[in-house]
C-alpha cells in the first residue's frame, strides 16, 4: 500500500488557507494550483533519469534528464481541472488525458460522461488529479478506465481524502500510489468530507 500524506509546511499552510469559508474563487483556484505543484514535486521523486553530456560554459558536462516523455496528467472533470495548471507548471510537456465523471447526489455513485486518452497509454505514468477523494467511487472508476486502456503505472494526487475512500482504493488496486495533502476525518451524511473544503468543483468554477 502506498499512501503518502505530504505534510510539508507549505502544503499545510496553503491547505489551511483553503479551508476558510470566506475565500474568493480566485484565491481558491490559486491555492489549488500551488498545492498541486507541491504534490507533483513529491509524486515525481522516483522518475527515472538518464545521464547525457551537454556543452557547458567550461566544456562538456554530464547532466541528468528525465528519461522518455511518458507522463500523462488525468484530470477528473470538473474539479480536477483546478489542479491542472499547477501540475503542468512542473511538467510542461505532459500529455493530458481527460475523464468526465460526476457523483450522483442521491446514490453517490460516479456517472461517466466523457473519456479522451492520449496515445501510448501502455507506456505512460498516469497522474490522476482531483481535489477530493471521498467515497472513492470516482477514483475507482477512473483507475478502471486507465487500466482498460493498458496503463500500468498510476498515481493519484488529491488535496483532501478520507480513510474510507483510501481503503476502497487500496483494497481494489494496491498498486496505485496516492499523494494527498491531508487525510481528513470522515464523510458526512451527504458524502462530503469533514472538515474538508466543501464543494471543490463549485469553489473552483464559481458556481452555486
Ligand atoms: C467531486 C470530486 C471528485 C468526487 C469525489 O466531484 O471532485 O471527483 O466528487 O467523490 P467520490 O470519492 O465520492 O467519488 P463532483 O462529482 O462533485 O463533480 P464536479 O467535479 O463536476 O463538481
Ligand atoms: N466532492 C466535493 O467537492 N467535496 C467533498 O467533500 C466530497 C466530494
Automatic annotation (TrEMBL):
Cofactor: Mg(2+)
Enzyme Commission (EC) number: 2.4.2.9
Pathways involved: Pyrimidine metabolism; UMP biosynthesis via salvage pathway; UMP from uracil: step 1/1
SUPFAM superfamilies in the record: PRTase-like
Reactions accelerated catalytically: UMP + diphosphate = 5-phospho-alpha-D-ribose 1-diphosphate + uracil
Keywords, alphabetical: Allosteric enzyme, Glycosyltransferase, GTP-binding, Magnesium, Nucleotide-binding, Transferase
MF-aspect GO terms: uracil phosphoribosyltransferase activity
Cofactor binding: number and manner: Binds 1 Mg(2+) ion per subunit. The magnesium is bound as Mg-PRPP.
InterPro entries hit by this protein: PRTase-like, PRTase_dom, Upp_B, UPRT, UPRTase/APRTase
Gene3D superfamilies: 3.40.50.2020
Pfam families listed in its UniProt record: UPRTase (PF14681)
Residues involved in uracil binding: 193, 198-200
Ligase found in the keyword field: no
Domain Phosphoribosyltransferase as annotated: residue spans: 7-207
Activity regulation info: Allosterically activated by GTP.
Family membership: Belongs to the UPRTase family.
Protein name per UniProt: Uracil phosphoribosyltransferase
Amino acid at each position: 500500500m502506498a499512501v503518502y500524506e505530504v505534510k510539508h509546511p507549505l502544503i499545510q499552510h496553503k491547505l489551511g488557507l483553503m479551508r476558510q469559508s470566506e475565500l474568493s474563487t480566485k484565491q481558491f483556484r490559486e491555492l489549488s494550483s500551488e498545492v498541486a505543484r507541491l504534490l507533483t514535486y513529491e509524486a515525481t521523486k522516483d522518475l527515472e533519469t538518464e545521464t547525457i553530456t551537454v556543452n557547458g560554459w567550461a566544456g562538456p558536462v554530464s547532466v541528468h534528464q528525465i528519461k522518455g516523455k511518458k507522463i500523462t496528467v488525468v484530470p477528473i472533470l470538473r474539479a480536477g481541472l483546478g489542479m491542472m495548471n499547477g501540475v503542468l507548471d512542473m511538467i510542461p510537456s505532459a500529455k493530458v488525458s481527460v475523464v468526465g465523471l460526476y457523483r450522483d447526489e442521491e446514490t453517490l455513485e460516479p456517472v461517466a460522461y466523457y473519456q479522451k486518452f492520449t496515445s501510448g497509454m501502455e507506456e505512460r505514468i498516469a497522474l490522476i488529479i482531483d481535489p477530493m477523494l471521498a467515497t472513492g467511487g470516482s477514483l475507482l472508476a477512473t483507475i478502471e478506465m486507465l487500466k482498460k486502456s493498458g496503463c500500468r503505472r498510476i498515481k493519484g494526487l488529491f488535496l483532501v481524502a478520507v480513510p474510507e475512500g483510501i481503503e476502497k482504493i487500496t483494497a481494489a488496486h494496491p498498486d496505485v500510489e496516492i499523494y494527498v495533502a491531508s487525510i481528513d476525518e470522515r464523510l458526512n451524511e451527504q458524502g462530503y468530507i469533514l472538515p474538508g473544503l466543501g464543494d471543490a468543483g463549485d469553489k473552483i468554477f464559481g458556481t452555486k
